[in-house]
Amino acid sequence: MSRPTPGPFHAARNGPQPGPRTGAARPAEVRCAVCGTESRQSRFRPVPPEGAPDLDLRPGEPLRGTMASWLQQCPHCGYVAPEIAHAHPAAIEAVGTAPFRALIADATHPPLARRFLAYAYVLEETGALHAAAEATLQAAWAADDARKPDLARAWRGEAVALWRAGPPLDAEQTVRVVDALRRAEAFEDAGTTADQLAATHPPDAVAGVIALEQRLIAMRDAGRHTVASALPPPSRRPHASQTSIARRGTSLWDRIKGFWRRG
Ligand SMILES: [Zn+2]
Question: Region entry Disordered: which residue ranges (predicted)?
Answer without folding.
Answer: 1-29, 227-247
